[in-house]
Amino acid sequence: MGSSDSKLNFRKAVIQLTTKTQPVEATDDAFWDQFWADTATSVQDVFALVPAAEIRAVREESPSNLATLCYKAVEKLVQGAESGCHSEKEKQIVLNCSRLLTRVLPYIFEDPDWRGFFWSTVPGAGRGGQGEEDDENARPLAESLLLAIADLLFCPDFTVQSHRRSTVDSAEDVHSLDSCEYIWEAGVGFAHSPQPNYIHDMNRMELLKLLLTCFSEAMYLPPAPESGSTNPWVQFFCSTENRHALPLFTSLLNTVCAYDPVGYGIPYNHLLFSDYREPLVEEAAQVLIVTLDHDSASSASPTVDGTTTGTAMDDADDFQFILKGIARLLSNPLLQTYLPNSTKKIQFHQELLVLFWKLCDFNKKFLFFVLKSSDVLDILVPILFFLNDARADQSRVGLMHIGVFILLLLSGERNFGVRLNKPYSVRVPMDIPVFTGTHADLLIVVFHKIITSGHQRLQPLFDCLLTIVVNVSPYLKSLSMVTANKLLHLLEAFSTTWFLFSAAQNHHLVFFLLEVFNNIIQYQFDGNSNLVYAIIRKRSVFHQLANLPTDPPTIHKALQRRRRTPEPLSRTGSQEGTSMEGSRPAAPAEPGTLKTSLVATPGIDKLTEKSQVSEDGTLRSLEPEPQQSSEDGSPAKGEPSQAWREQRRPSSSSASGQWSPTPEWVLSWKSKLPLQTIMRLLQVLVPQVEKICIDKGLTDESEILRFLQHGTLVGLLPVPHPILIRKYQANLGTAMWFRTYMWGVIYLRNVDPPVWYDTDVKLFEIQRV
Q1: How does strand 724-728 pair with strand 619-621?
Q2: Phi/psi at 130 (nearest 5 deg)?
Q3: Which of 132, 559, 569, 599 could be cross-linked to 138 through a Cys-Cys bond (beta carbons 3.0 to 4.6 Å apart)?
């Protein structure tokens, strides 16, 4: 039968379904088989031939027919899984049912009245079914569907290579088959790499798309961090009820981490033949991050979450395989070749970042392995590249946040700060000033660029960016002159009166920067003559802060200026210098670009927990101070915590005009500015530098820098303050943010076919830039 006939018959069946007002019996196989038995329709055909309006019409006008369609399609998948899909016809039926369910499920999820349907046990009927629980066969439809998909993903000659030598042998018994021997790719827990098979990859992809669609019920519930928000589909699939949970998790992880888009290194190879592996890898990454999303504390799902990925996976070779794979894929869009467009560029870096985040967050052994490995810098550089590239694009705010969250998580560990001292020699073309220095220089220069030339919606991230710099600052051995000037420029911009007085929490940014300078002066003075010189040159900024006016007329005048200057930060005074060769400026989103809304992220005080570094290098968690008035109980010298905990009000209140600065408020934090160390440094060094300049008639910077390199402040500075690290701590707010972001990425990335497009999702809004 020709494919056009096949499509015509399929379309006729759909029309019959939508026009029948009477229920069609489940036993009427002649009618139902039209949807899967005789057709050879691609998933794109199914989406075209089953319009959204018609699915909704059946749902409203003849619900029993929609229920029977779903029930019969699941029944066919269960039969296929039971029989092992030996004939081509059986394989075709399974694929057709899979495509049809992928099309229909979102329209069942979008209607609250239908939400319980798949969890009911009476075939094609109402919500009850509780009375049949003693009947062993009365599984909810959702469970039957999920177990059938799992079986089919390890079905010999359909989705995995058969191990039987001859066709005369009876096919492998599906029930006795040990799927651990059929893992899709070598890597974690599996040494054998099966022969690539295009057909198997395509079949896996279709089934994974259906699985992802099952999990996507989460998209149709509004964001609610208070609810335990376990996704029943994910919870059951990852439970011990599914004997394939672990081999499938391993298969997905290995498929992603073993993928090499560059292939054999032949230029333009991606133009010569299509890479059927990439769509499978994308689908695998998306299913992986969703299965890792549900509540990790839930004991109901030990197989994938708690026991396996959380604690049992601790082999260094496995960790190395995962880290190398993710780093290779994240670095792919940065590959520069002499031939333009000669290497394939992957598009699923956001899913990879979520995967990396989940693995680090769940498995602390993996996180420590990452931090011990020099490969952590192969994760850092791509993240900084993405942050810099996306800074002007409103549709990529989510990407900016996840990149910053990962760096915040890493920065809570001393090893990360130490690693940043490695010289930066890879020249990835980025729209930043040229510098010679370390990975720490790269990080700070990119952060400066984000703060001074990112778009307005990134302002909530400034606290996070500077917290990262504070966390690594005690370990930075030598900052370049370019970087030192950038840090001083930020202090200059943040300490203008109009900026300090225009929002209740803007002064925290000044506290963070002062803490950075104090950490470097107290712990890394010897190698940081560039920074010391920059501080001396810009000493007036510190004097202005020490003498910050607190009288009402000056505050009023500063705010008047604020109204005339909407620009968030002064960009003058920062010598930009030329950008790196081959780079292009960060571009805003194309008009009309779709983006999904995100929930608000918690403030930095909720995102992090303070720890103090003891003399032996261990971290001691600091108890949050009890709420007390600002007059008593000042925190340790150089510690801004109390000041930035006070007056922490949502920025919206200042925007709506409810909040206004008072002299008392300014005094409450001005008195806590940690300026003692810097003032002492200036008191000692400025006269010496001036004397050298007068004595030798110097105008040359290099002589002064040489003097500062050999100078010492031992015994002249205040007693070093304890190092404080603000470590990321998991909380409900960020868990909800990640869920919203992850599903938003999955929604936007699945355009062929557009699985969820034009359905009534509730987790986020779809907006146009």
Answers
A1: unpaired
A2: -65, -35
A3: 132
